[in-house]
Amino acid sequence: MTFHRRALMGLSALGALALIHPLSAQQPGVSVEQPWARAALQGGNGGAFLTLRNAGPAADRLVSASTPLARVTEIHETVREGEVMRMRPVSALDVPAGGSVTLRPGGAHVMMVGLSQPLRAGTTVPLTLTFERAGVVEVQLAVQGAGASGPAAAAHHAH
Ligand SMILES: [Cu+2]
């Protein structure tokens, strides 16, 4: 009986939320634009970069990332310590409602640690992103040259 009552309360709470936010239940809110990575060696680490755009009415958070090509995949931010820029893992990355966050070299990025195969320019690499609200989003990273600073570089350098 207690269980039943709890289940009913849960359902009515969900119903109320759906009435207040009719769009948020259907729209994931967060989209991923221009996912790319830098070429990297087998056994090394690879940086993944992209733009997270949140069209939804609520803030979201990127809480994890993974790829079968890496032993561990972390979310990193880059911080200045005196004269030195250092990367450090963070547990999540905020994506504000109606806003966007760009992961780029020298800033926040996804770090694929311990690559089981090289990342070769011109190929694609699968990356799974998990958001607190939007859930799981699968993307394909377009691998650019090792020194690339943005997603468009390879399009001009192909051939
Ligand atoms: Cu890093």
Automatic annotation (TrEMBL):
It comes from Muricoccus vinaceus. Keywords: Signal. Residues 1-25 form the signal peptide. The keyword Methyltransferase does not apply. Transmembrane segments: none annotated. The keyword Signal applies. Pfam families: PCuAC. This is Copper chaperone PCu(A)C.
